[in-house]
Amino acid sequence: MSRVINLDSAAKRRNQCRRTVAEMLRRLGQKSVVDKEALDMVALIVLCLHEIGEGIEQSATAWEQRGYWFKAEALRQRWNWTHRCAAQLVCLLEEDAAEQIPAAVATLLPHFGDVRLNRYVRGPHLWRDCFRRLKQLPQTKMAAN
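and the corresponding structure tokens:
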């Protein structure tokens, strides 16, 4: 019997989300005002942070099932900032505090500084209407993370 290889692992999705967030941070850094497009980009960052957090929980659960409780807890501790940052950005988006968004987004830079981007590969279709989609998510899902 051959091994089953999961091509869409939590780590792969986490790395894709990290690249997306890094690209959004770079694009937001080039903007001089927080307009509708910037709000959509910030909403995409929030959605990516939630997906990263969910992937971390999946990976930690897998480690726990193998008996690696310390490793699972260390993974959760190393990535617990995703939930805090996502919640902070959601609050700013809900309060319509556009003047505070650049400072909040800047706090993410150290977490994504190791992601190298040679060119932009994500197009506007990816973040278009993300702000509306984020507002349509159930509040229980947003509060749970």
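(Above: one complete record from the training split.) The CA atoms of residues 5 and 12 lie 13 Å apart.
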